[in-house]
Amino acid sequence: MPNNNNDQRRVLVIAGPTCSGESTITDRLIKKYPIFTRLITATTRKPRLNEKNEIDYYFFTEDEFRKQIAVGNILEYTYFENTNTYYGSYKPDLENKFSVGKNIIMNLDLVGANYYKKNYDAITIFLNPGSLDVIKERLIRRDPKISTEYLASRLKTAANELDNEQQYYDYIVRNEQNKLEEALNNIIDILKKENYRLS
Predict the structure, then answer these.
(1) Are residues 129 and 187 in the same domain?
(2) H/E element holding 93?
(3) Which of 52, 49, 57, 53 is nearest to 74 (CA)?
(4) What is the residue range of the signal peptide feature (predicted)?
(5) Same domain? 60 vs 123
């Protein structure tokens, strides 16, 4: 397992419900510590506006995704029934990044977090935005035309993550409105405590 460099950790999982700020915090950490990079996820969903293959995601058809699983290139994956979409960790991307000495940040669900904790000695961090009301506000701000049904679906998933999943992560970090710097500093303290190489 890739954690043999003076026992320094190489994989970090930052998770949280929708609109918890995981992408923003991941981007800020990578900018501050360029030894970190993001794992590019494999998915069966269609590219959105301006998204590029092998940069934003590895885009596969469902058949291609299943073939990648069969040959061992998808290390772990999750199926989202409401959107009929698979997301998974793409092993070639992981190995390429390890080979050039990078630490890898992953934004995963609990299944993925547990996989990397068990197999790659990852520390797992759950971002808690404070309340469902904050999530609702952020979802509507992000997409003012969001449908009532889709909003309800996203909030139901977020409620489950807050109520039933966050306690299974190594750390819970609050990322409340207008307190991004505080959350970021708390995560940097965790990285130092948990022996991640930062330069």
Answers:
(1) yes
(2) helix 91-99
(3) 57
(4) none
(5) no
Q: Give kind and range of the element (H or E) at residue 177.
A: none
DSSP sequence for 4-66: -STT-B-EEEEE-STTSSHHHHHHHHHHH-TTEEEPPEEESSPP-TT--BTTTBEE--HHHHH
Residue 59 confidence (pLDDT): 97
Could you tell me how far CA 172 lies from the centroid of its own chain? 14
What is the pLDDT, as a whole number, of residue 178? 84
CATH number assigned to the domain comprising residue 1: 3.40.50.300
> 3-class DSSP state for residue 151?
helix
Domain hosting residue 188, numbered range: 1-35+102-194
Asked if residue 78 lies in contact with residue 69, where contact means CB atoms within 8 angstroms, the answer is: no
146 in the same domain as 189: yes
| Pair (28, 106) in one structural domain | yes
Residue-wise pLDDT for 98-125, tens only, equals 999 999 999 988 999 999 999 999 999 9
